Amino acid sequence: MKFVRFKDKHQQQLRQGILTDGEIKEISGNMFHKWDYTGEHFSQEEVDLAAPLEPNQVIGIGANYVAKKEDLPEKGPDMPVFFFKPNSSVIGPGESIQLPETIDEVKFESELAVVIGKEAASIREEEVFDYIFGYTVANDVTAPQYFHEDGHWTLGKSFDTFTPLGPVIETEFDADSAEIQAVHNGEKKQDSPTNLMIVTTQRMIAYLSNVMTLKPGDVILTGSPVGAEFLKENDEIECKIAGIGSLKNKVVKIKQPSQV
Ligand code: MG
Hints:
By secondary structure, this protein is mostly beta strands. It has 2 helices and 19 strands. The protein starts with a strand and ends in a 7-residue tail after the last strand. The mean pLDDT is 96. Magnesium ion (MG) is lined by residues 60, 109, 111, 140, 221, 223-224.
């Protein structure tokens, strides 16, 4: 099932629904617990899709792909590198990635994003799939210019608009055989299967759940394949995963002066 959030072009009210073959059936309620069809339906053409959820929180993992199978380490890191991204950085398909006045270019990072559906505390790797609601596509936009020399990444990951998500949350998806791609101004730059991840989805979610209780609506960005490059003003970036969809965003520059 493909869960979406959308605005109809006239009322601009944020609604949620299920997308099937270009048609959206509106739902009401909480997609993680109990929801019902409202009876209203829309053609996908007559709406603007929004980010498919307002995350409870967004957590990313750093440097998680190798270029080829032979490069996979026998054992992943004992303590993976995780970071948080603020909810205020989330935008949806078609919205603009805004470059602050102080930054001329930012990195795109096409990623598989996991949406947690059930509270998960201290779970084991083999239990992880029971706690996953579905998957979406993320662009973990990053300004390395704001990585602190002491190693903190938070600022460089946190500017408004730096976390495009969408277009849908797909609940029936085989994450183990997914292909993560990015197309930059029409040219393919990233294209890797998820079996090139160093820390598997199962391990990262089990690990995190042993540190913090994960909640419905938590979004875990599972890392970006090799090939991520820089975006400039007026560029278009498309992050896509077959079976979930295509997440396209344009880059604009904010003209007002910045204090950072
Ligand atoms: Mg990333």
